[in-house]
Each structure stands twice: as C-alpha cells, then as structure tokens.
Design a protein that fits this description.
Layout: E1 5-7, E2 52-58, H1 62-75, E3 79-85, H2 91-103, E4 110-112, H3 116-124, H4 132-138, H5 142-145, E5 152-153, E6 156-157, E7 160-166, E8 168-172, H6 173-178, H7 189-199, H8 246-260, H9 268-273, H10 278-283, E9 289-292, H11 296-299, E10 312-315, E11 330-337, H12 344-354, H13 357-361, H14 373-382, H15 392-401, E12 410-411, H16 414-429, H17 435-452
Parallel strand pairs: 2-3, 2-4
Antiparallel strand pairs: 1-5, 1-12, 4-11, 5-6, 7-11, 8-9, 8-10
Helix pairs in contact: 14-15, 16-17
Length: 454
C-alpha cells in the first residue's frame, strides 16, 4: 500500500500574542484579509440575482457560528450559508456522519475536522479540495495571514485554520483557595501531581478527585505533550514509532500512579465503563483539575446545560523539569472544502472569512495574525453566561507563555495507530499488563501497522 505523507512548516510561537481576536464584533474593526485586487473578501462579492447556497457541517451548536455567518452574508449577499450541527458537542460522531454523507454523495460544501489523523485520512482519500489555487488567485501567502501552519498532502494545502489554541489545565479556583494553593503561572508534572493529592477530598460517591483524565489518547501522552518535538505516537518525521521515547512510558506511569498509588485521579475503569463525561466531572466538582483544550474556555463561563457555579482558572501545561520552556499540544482545527462541492469558489470565500475576522465572532480563538489576544479574551469571556466565573488573568498568562511545536508529518493511517495505542494503554490501566510488557506490546502491535502501510 502506497504510503501517503503529510508535511507542515513551522508553527509560530504562542508567546507573542499567539491567540487572537478582532475588536468588538464589527467586521470593520480589524484589518480584513486582502484579495488579489486589494479589497477584502467580504467586499468583493459579485452581484448575482439568486444567492448560491453552501452547506457547512460541524459539531458546535448553531449559535456558535451564526454571528459569523450573518456578518459574512451581509457583506456577501450572493452567498447563503446553511450551518448544520450533525451531533452537537461530539466531533468524532459528527465526522463519522460526514464520511457517510460524502460516500452517499449528499450535498454539502464545507466542514471542520478535529485532529491531524482525521485530516490525514480524508486528504489521502481524495475527500478534500486543494486550496493552493484559490490562495494564489487571491494573491495571498498563507504564512503572512496565519500563525498556525496546517498540514499538507504531497505538498498541497487542503485546509485553512479554524479555532485555535493550546491545551492547558482547567482549575477549580475555589477548591484551590480552600487548599491554600495558588494558581500556577508555570509548574512541573511533579507539582501537578502534588496539587492533585492536596485537592483530593472525601470518599465514595462524594469524593472529589484532584484530577480527571479522559479516555482519549491525549491522556496517555501527558508528558510527551510537554516536549518541544516528537509529541505523538509517531516521531515528527512521520516514519518512526516514538515508543523508545522515555516520555511515553513516563506518561503512562504518571496516570497509573496518580490513580492507583495516590488515588488522586478518577479511576480509568470508571471513566470507560460509566462513560463519565469530562465536563460533568469538572463542573460538578468531582474533579478539581482537568487537562483540556481551548474549547473549554468559553464553557468555563457556563452553558445552558451546565451553569457555572464556581470560578475557573487556567494554568499552563506542566513542564517535565523546572525551568523548561512551556510547550503544549495544540493547533488549529482544519476548515476544509468537500471535493464534491458544486460551489468551491464560494466555499473558499466563506472559509477565508471564517478563518480570519469571522472567527472572533464565534467567541473562539483564532490563528489570524491580525487579531489581538487581549481583545479576543475579553470578547470570549464577556460573551459567556457568567463572565465573573472566569479568571481572565490566568487565561492571558497561559496564552502568553505557551509555545506550540512544529507540526509533525502525519500518516494517513494515524487513526489506526491511535486505536492500537489506546488498546495497549487500556490493558495497563486495568492491571492486565505491567508497564514493561505494555511498552513491548505497544512497539510490536504498532510496528505491524506501520510495516503494513509501507
């Protein structure tokens, strides 16, 4: 089977205004991305009698994207955007539905993806429309517009950056205050573990754990995500398994010891058998700390389903040693055009707007270089149900000190590697293998997948 590779250029650092925002909501507050003629995309719409309709698929609730859609449509009356959330707040199930719709040749135009493996598989299958020609026609250089590089396939660009940001630690500030613990501005995994012990209270159904780890592969790569390179299951070169990296073994051991020895983390068996929602575990105060991604910033201010009842603060991703630069896992969700779309030019125009000034209207962080971090934080926090429940200063610190690594080369079968890795980690966490046997099994089973795809 021919191996298909994805390549990426260097991502900009978060430390100098990595995450960004646009003014106060007006489409004219910040500089607009320019097209070839010197005008912004929102100002160059050709006049037509009937607007072209494009369908946008995702998992965020409609209220997230509608303000951006409304602003785009007002400036581009020749295009109508219909947003359809397929499975609200469930990106993986949404992407499965998108795959089925594509296979059935259902009518849709643009959608968003949630990970490098998700992108790799669909780019390699021919599901995505290349964007190089559209950018060239507009006269735009990607690196001049965006601070987060996106992956490529065979040198071609298939996506623009959507919501953006680093992983961080979400904290229940009231529980920290009660334990006389400060919100860390930088810290190590040893200090994170110590915090978790001190924050663990009670027994049985009323117990509050110091930390909660979800079932995703990210929670078996904790210390790897603190590295400046080779953060994943594969090394950055996309050719070599990363299982010999001592941080992979240490990541598994950290989670195991916090659960089994310290009893400061939610038991993995409970997480998978009870299908514990990580949001509930944190917001119902059953866990005081949650490693998570930037999408949880707005949710910390409360939602219709889960109101905010305490102040949430944010800490940077822990480092592996004191004095290390703060690195974290992160990037921007790929915004893509279906190769089956009948309205590719209009789809591109919408995604250019959404990936630039439009992203601020969704109250999510953007990868647009012209946006402003402080304005974006203000905007996101003020739009929540309970802005007073978000410790804004700690959030700005996280966004200011965190760096992202160079995006890795990702293979199209990365999803298969993730599934195999989680399966091996599962046997370790459930006590069916010790760590050395687990690492040996990881090397053997994942190498088979790599060899089968050479």
């Amino acid at each position: 089977m021919k191996k298909k590779w994805l390549s990426a250029a260097a991502a900009a650092l978060l430390a100098t205004g990595l995450l960004s925002g646009c003014g106060d909501g007006s489409a004219n507050d910040a500089a607009s991305p320019k097209q070839a003629g010197g005008a912004s995309p929102s100002a160059t719409a050709p006049a037509v009698k009937e607007p072209v309709s494009i369908k946008f698929l995702g998992w965020e609730k409609a209220s997230v994207y509608q303000p951006a859609i409304d602003a785009f449509q007002q400036a581009n009356p020749d295009i109508k955007v219909d947003y359809v959330p397929l499975v609200e707040n469930d990106s993986n199930e949404t992407i499965k539905k998108i795959d089925l719709m594509y296979a059935s040749d259902d009518d849709f135009d643009v959608f968003t993806l949630n990970s490098a493996p998700a992108f790799a598989q669909r780019a390699a299958s021919g599901m995505l429309e290349p964007m190089d020609g559209y950018l060239a026609k507009e006269g735009v250089k990607y690196e001049d517009e965006y601070k987060a590089e996106q992956q490529k396939l065979d040198g071609k660009r298939y996506s623009l950056p959507g919501k953006f940001g680093p992983w961080m630690i979400l904290l229940n500030k009231e529980l920290l205050d009660a334990a006389n613990l400060e919100v860390p501005k930088s810290w190590t995994w040893d200090e994170f573990r110590d915090y978790a012990k001190k924050l663990t209270k009670g027994e049985g159904a009323s117990k509050t754990y110091g930390a909660h780890f979800h079932e995703w592969k990210d929670y078996f790569l904790l210390k790897l995500y603190s590295a400046s390179t080779d953060q994943g299951i594969m090394k950055d070169d996309g050719q070599t398994l990363n299982a010999d990296n001592p941080l992979m073994k240490q990541s598994l051991e950290l989670r195991y010891e916090m659960e089994k020895t310290d009893k400061s983390a939610t038991p993995y068996q409970d997480v998978i058998t009870q299908k514990i929602p990580y949001r509930n575990q944190f917001f119902q105060q059953k866990a005081a700390m949650l490693p998570t991604g930037p999408w949880m910033v707005a949710e910390a201010g409360g939602t219709d389903k889960i109101p905010a009842t305490f102040v949430s603060a944010f800490a940077p991703w822990p480092t592996n040693a004191a004095g290390d630069d703060v690195y974290s896992f992160g990037g921007a969700d790929p915004l893509v055009i279906s190769s089956h779309s009948k309205h590719k030019e209009e789809s591109y125009r919408f995604l250019r707007y959404l990936s630039t000034e439009g992203m601020a209207l969704t109250h999510q962080f953007s990868a647009w270089k012209k946006a402003d971090i402080n304005q974006e934080v203000d905007r996101i926090v003020s739009a929540t149900q309970s802005p007073d429940k978000i410790d804004k200063a700690s959030l700005i610190n996280v966004l200011s000190v965190t760096k992202l690594p160079i995006p890795p080369i990702t293979v199209s079968y990365a999803g298969d590697l993730e599934k195999a890795y989680i399966a091996e980690a599962d046997t370790y966490m459930l006590g069916n293998n010790d760590i050395d046997k687990t690492m040996a099994s990881i090397k053997a089973s994942l190498q088979k997948i790599i060899d089968a795809n050479k």
